[in-house]
Design brief:
It is built from 5 helices and 4 strands; from the N terminus they run E-H-E-H-E-E-H-H-H. The model has no long low-confidence stretch (mean pLDDT 95). The chain is an alpha/beta fold and 140 residues long. The protein has a 4-stranded mixed sheet with strand order 1-2-4-3, with helices on both faces. It has a single domain, classed as Collagenase (Catalytic Domain).
Length: 140
C-alpha cells in the first residue's frame, strides 16, 4: 500500500483508514504526477520533540515533521511524524473539531512533498488554500 499508518509511543486508531489512504494517494498522484509511498507515524509531543531536536536542531514542540526519503521522476517516498498531543491542543485553541485538524495536518505533510512551502506569509497562504481544497474534497 502506498500510504501506511503506524504508532510510535502512543496508541491511536485512525478512523476510515482505507478511504483516507486512497484519497491521499490519488490526490498526490493527480497533483505531483508521481507515485507516493508514505508512512505516517503517530506519536506524542515528547517523541516528536526529540526528533525535532535530534534531526532539525529545533527545541520546540511541533505538530508534524515530514522527512522526504526518496524522490525520483516517478516516485516520492517519505515518513511523516505527527504529534497527536499537538493536534488535540491545536484543535482546542483553534476551536475546530479534532478530526478536522488531524486531516489538515495529514494533508499538510503531503503538500510539502508536492512542493508547497510555509516559511513566508505568501507561502503559508498558498499552503492553507491547498489544505482547505483537500479538506473540502475529502469531506464531500
Amino acid at each position: 500500500m502506498p500510504v501506511s499508518f503506524a504508532n510510535a509511543d502512543i496508541i491511536f486508531t485512525l478512523p476510515a483508514k482505507t478511504a483516507l489512504k486512497k484519497f491521499i494517494a490519488t490526490s498526490f498522484e493527480k497533483e505531483a504526477k508521481k507515485k507516493l509511498g508514505v508512512s505516517y507515524i503517530f506519536c506524542s509531543d515528547d517523541y516528536l520533540l526529540r526528533i525535532n531536536q535530534d534531526f532539525l536542531r529545533h527545541d520546540y514542540y511541533t505538530d508534524i515533521i515530514t522527512f522526504p526519503l526518496v524522490e525520483t521522476d516517478q516516485r516520492v517516498e517519505a515518513e511523516i511524524y505527527i504529534s497527536i498531543d499537538r493536534i488535540r491542543d491545536n484543535a482546542a485553541k483553534l476551536k475546530v473539531p479534532f478530526d478536522q485538524e488531524l486531516h489538515r495536518v495529514l494533508f499538510h505533510g503531503i503538500l510539502h512533498l508536492i512542493g508547497y512551502k510555509d516559511k513566508t506569509s505568501t507561502q503559508k497562504e498558498l499552503m492553507r488554500r491547498a489544505e482547505d481544497k483537500w479538506l473540502k474534497a475529502y469531506i464531500h
